[in-house]
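Teaching assistant here, posting this on the class forum so everyone can see the example we discussed in section. The complex has two components, and the goal was to see what a joint structure prediction looks like when all of them are supplied at once.
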Amino acid sequence: MTVSTEILRRTPLYALHLELGGKIVPFAGYEMPVQYPAGILKEHLHTRAKAGLFDVSHMGQGFLSGDVGALERITPADVAGLKDGMQRYGLLLTPTGNIKDDFMFSRLVSEADLYLVVNAGGKETDFAYINDALKGVTKVTPRFDRALLALQGPAAEAVLARHAPDVAALTFMKVIRTTVAGAPAIVSRTGYTGEDGYEISVEGADAERVARTLLAEPEVLPIGLGARDSLRLEAGLCLYGHDIDDTINPAQAALLWSIGKRRKEAKDFPGAEKTMGGNPVKKLVGIRPEGRAPAREGAEIVADGRVIGRITSGGFGPSVNAPIAMGYVETVYAAAGTKLELMVRGQALPAQVAPMPFVPHTYKR
Amino acid sequence: MSETRYTDQHEWVRLDGDSATIGITKFAAEQLGDVVYVELPAKGKAVKAGAEAAVVESVKAASEVYAPVSGEVTGANDALSAEPSKVNEDPEGAGWFFKLKLADAAEFSKLMDAAAYAEFTKGL
């Protein structure tokens, strides 16, 4: 018997997860459903076919007030250039220019504050880091009491528009304040599955009612963390703490697209010289094992008879119907089609570098 | 007349004469979730009780399958490579993993019977 000293938190939807038969596991300090009775495969495929509802309330929401443009001191994203009603993906950088976290930031129409969403695992330290780095200039007020739901899949628009008609007009990365089933909400046309869909931020007290309203729609199934992980891996999206962390810079992680053009030219962010200084020594790539055996996180990547990298996320892609992975390789081996071997249980499995995403994104542009 | 016994690692073994058929229990299959890949031992391989003999992978994770008894592998359920979902659909029937020729009958009788295993899983 193991006695855990960690006190796990629960989201406002915890009771609903239990009622729906969710299998609860510890994740990023929370008790979260890894799957529901349908199981990971069905939940994954259902999300790509119709619509899935995810509880992502463990993620860290907050509002940045003051001179919000000062955030550019610790992110290479273009904050100043973000237009009203738009959300953007950004990287929070350490003083040396490695990735402290990745996050989303939104400029809500006619509001001075920026709405932020950071990963669950580092939300306290992220906000403390921002407040410390930008002391006296700008300040984050955490709103960890708010809930965050993601409705993802081709039926997401039809479903959500029944309860919030104005969301139909949004395109990818747009964000509005509206009401969903009567509850005040911040709704963005975003997500982390590669599918079209929305993320819906509501007060904790409204979360269960909104979730039940959406789950009552015939197209919607509840989806756990297991399928969330396989969906994001197929979509070629990085998971912090696995594919990116504070030993990796944006160039290595193939995330230079998240750096604003103005910022690339000005090189005015931590580690800019190194990040913009040409080919990194290693690079994150997509990998397709040739057989049926998945290669998991930690598996060594071999080429020319020596270890040239390591898998950082790997598993089975239900929509691809084959094993898929991502990992870092020495940059000379990063071209699509490069033959590799993956060490799984002492055997070398043939694999090759593959373009990502593994499943095309279906964002509504 | 065949008899089925169970391990605390959630394998089942069904004995017909000296032929033992091995798989993972319904409890294990439910815990694992959707099985997407199975790696089976080669015919002729000698396995020892308690040693790793096969691998079963779900979407989420890989798990080892241990040989409940010692013996020589006489066959494997090759249908699982094309249809690993059989492990979830019928774990204690069509989802069997491999067969072996039992080396030591005493190893078999030491394992849990159905009632003892049911009691064991209740406590988990």
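For the discussion questions: The first strand of chain B starts at residue 3 and ends at 6. Chain B touches chain A at residues 33-34, 36-37, 39, 55, 57-62, 81, 88 (CB under 8 Å). Think about how each of these relates to the inputs above.
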